[in-house]
Specification:
By secondary structure, this protein is mostly helical. About 65% of the residues lie in helices and about 0% in strands.
Length: about 250
Amino acid sequence: MQERSERTRARLVGAAAELFDRYGYAEARLGDISRVAGVTKGALYFHFASKQELAAAVQESGCLLLDETVLALRRDGRPALQSLIDTTHALAVWATGEPVVRASFRLGRERADGERPVLNYHLVCVAAAGRLLARAAEEGALRRGVAEDAARTLVAGMIAGIEAAAWSGAPYPELSSCLSEAWTLVLRAVAEEGAARGLRTAPPPGPTVDPGPTTDRDPTVGPPGQGSRALTVSTVSASAGSLSSR
């Protein structure tokens, strides 16, 4: 019974993410969310008392995906700067095809002056990047004289650029290529020469998108999303091959 309840909740969060991503918070209706999820309105209210709670659950899922990915990268033993580069590539994948992340960004933008509390997913990503930069500094990977705040500002701009490019419809290959080139320039500016020499600015090798399940999806919603793990832990760590997909 508990497992079925958890599956129902996950379907509701997935359906809400798709509709928040496509229509925004104000236009996404609870009735449509329950229909896309394939559950009754009563089941929706059993799990979520309001649309605000459902939006919070979507953003919580986006935060969990980010946290799990960063943790997996750090456990993989790669340098902090490489973990940071790979995290931004993960964001590029998610921003172009993962409804949970796309909705998390959009909910933060659209509700900034509305209901509280409101989570700013952009700032969550910037904070995660800042922690990786701090670790890079501890590892002696930052160029002498480069302030962490300055490096953090550069990376924050890259994250904003990822979000803006994805929102404007830039395809993933184009976004990934631009991101790789940007990292080449940023590393020249902020990384110690020896540390930068061993870093890869391109995405981790291997497949980047897991199509995920396509059942129980309403064809009127548009193109299928990528599920709750568009970029899997195994993909992010493919270059080392030490972790398996959830």
